[in-house]
User: Which sequence fits this backbone?
């Protein structure tokens, strides 16, 4: 588990660095995105990963890793949007955005550690393609919950699904790096 924590942090460092650089380029323009728009962005990235895994020919010279990083960062943005709501104009400076990013990562990592304890790191025996499929399944669930105005009867909410997608994408990145 200690190795998992270090590997998790290494992936997050890569994602966080890109988030900071994009914030420097674009500011917090992402704050205007509604949850379905973020969900669709994540869906596009997950579909591309699945295509890369299934297709014999790749026409764009980018692998799976940048797409998984995008999934992680968009999911973190979605978690921020759930808490703070959507705005009409960008409203976060770099320091505030990073603080929110770090807060969401800390909560999601704690969830991973708790589940990892209970499941005995079963993800280590999974294929990257299976993790991709689980992300796509979570996205379809999120879309259905969004279509139900955010209401569920017995299922976990949208936030838990975004957290699971972050963790699955991090696991995939760990696998790809090994």
Assistant:
């Amino acid at each position: 588990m200690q190795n998992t924590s270090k590997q998790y942090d290494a992936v997050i460092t890569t994602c966080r660095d890109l988030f900071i650089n994009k914030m420097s380029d674009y500011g917090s323009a992402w704050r205007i995105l509604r949850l379905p728009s973020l969900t669709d962005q994540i869906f596009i990235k997950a579909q591309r990963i699945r295509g890369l895994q299934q297709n014999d020919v790749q026409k764009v010279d980018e692998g799976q890793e940048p797409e998984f990083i995008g999934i992680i960062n968009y999911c973190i943005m979605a978690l921020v949007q759930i808490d703070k709501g959507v705005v009409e104009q960008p409203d976060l400076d770099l320091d505030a955005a990073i603080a929110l990013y770090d807060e969401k990562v800390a909560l999601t990592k704690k969830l991973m550690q708790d589940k990892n304890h209970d499941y005995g790191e079963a993800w280590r025996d999974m294929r990257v393609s299976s993790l991709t499929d689980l992300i796509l399944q979570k996205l379809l669930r999120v879309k259905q919950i969004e279509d139900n105005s955010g209401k569920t009867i017995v299922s976990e909410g949208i936030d838990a699904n975004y957290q699971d997608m972050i963790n699955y994408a991090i696991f995939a990145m760990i696998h790809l790096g090994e």
The chain has a mean pLDDT of 95. DSSP finds six helices and no strands in the chain.
